[in-house]
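Tutorial, part two.
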Amino acid sequence: MAFGTQDDTDDVMNEINMTPLVDVMLVLLIIFIITVPVMKHAVNIDLPRATNQPQEVKPETVRLSVDAQGDYYWNENRIAESALEPMLQAEAAKNPQPELHIRGDKAVRYEKVAQAMAAAQHAGLRKIGFITEPK
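Running the prediction step on this input gives:
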């Protein structure tokens, strides 16, 4: 055996060994075969159909006016001061709650408007606004 000569058995291998690649692919195939039925397992239910159009229910507006003498008007109808709070409680129980627009005469005592606001707050109304006239 000489050190300077080369045998036919010592040739460089110029092909890829496919055996490890095939082994890895078979293992992955087995894993996918096992896991796919588990991922698709679900309970069959009949879901209700719904539209995605929002329903816009506009709450009504209640106009509470206080004239210069301190009298209350509910949507332009005169009411007694004792009937104000029960009417506000009835409106607060509605769903959706109406908006309360308070219109006070500039000559009325602020006490009357403050009493109307306190009665509305006590009744549970959340949307209260003041109506004024521009100059």
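The mean pLDDT is 84. In part three we will examine how such features are distributed along the chain.
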